Amino acid sequence: MKLSNRLTQIQSMVTPGYTHIWDCCCDHGLLGTELLARNAAEHVHFVDVLPELIDQLTTKLQRFYSPAHAAWHTHCLDVASLPLAQYAGKQLVIIAGVGGTLMTHFIQAIHQRQPEVQFDYLLCPVHQEYRLRQQLIALGYSLKQETLVRDNQRFYEVLLVSTVQAQKGIHSNISTVGDAIWHADTAEQARIAQDYRHKTLKHYQNVQRGNSEEVRHILEAYRAVTINSSAG
After folding, report:
1. Cβ-proximal residues to 112 (8 Å cutoff; 6+ apart), any chain
2. Domain-by-domain residue ranges, the chain?
């Protein structure tokens, strides 16, 4: 099955060198099976909390993926309980397809249970990006890469993050509203960034008018964003 623009972007940001990749909230396993097919890591782990999904996925993997591929493992597990400390080697935890609030909960829980484990996150939240970024900053994590993608008229931020603190010349500090996502190399990227900024501002303006929560500081942060385009 062809991957969506969102999943295509996520898998393209998985670089070589990982021993274990965890595809969390994996649903039917489309992203993980793509990574498995390209031998993106020595071990690919599929994680979901629904037993029926994991049973179906296990059956599919047994049928289609031979020992010639990277080793695969299925886990019926809450993401907050990932047993990262039990595994050696460089690890990547992918969380996508859930809201930023739930993603923030997962990250906080993993950090509290295993604060000493160093690994990377590849995150693609559905909404609440500002809150998620605040949490990552509070934990002292650093940014390796970020991008913005449009998929079926929806926008997604994709962040590759390290639990290791930023070091000069290696990783960057994380911004609450993003940095590289507002830099465009093509006219299409510039349009995506402009449309995303407009949609985000409209959302927080509606929240502010509804007086459901104080978001003035968030509005000001996004209003201050400038889109830098190098497109001709």
Report:
1. none
2. 5-176, 181-232
